[in-house]
Design brief:
5-stranded mixed β-sheet, Trna Endonuclease, Chain: A, domain 1
Amino acid sequence: MKRLNNAVGAIGEVDAAKFLQNKKYKILETNYKNKLGEIDIIALQNKVIVFVEVKNRSTLAFGMPSESVTPQKQYKIRRTAEAYLQKNKMLDSACRFDVIEVVGTHINHIENAF
């Protein structure tokens, strides 16, 4: 079951990246990983670095996808983002954290989610 969930998640991330590109975001990284964690998409929009967590669900039976971005997950993403900014000498850059929910073919982009 985990392999199926990973495949569904990967499709959601591809759809989310295309969605952002259609909104004129420049995709800098996908599936960025370091020792602290992973960020699904790192993009640039109007000089703002946008760290995007993509949550994919086939149904809403277990609630909205964004509800699974817990405070612990947010902390991990923030720490991973900080390391990315430091590594790339971008600590002075404006940044924000978004969540993209993918439910079937519907995409909901939550800017400044946390």
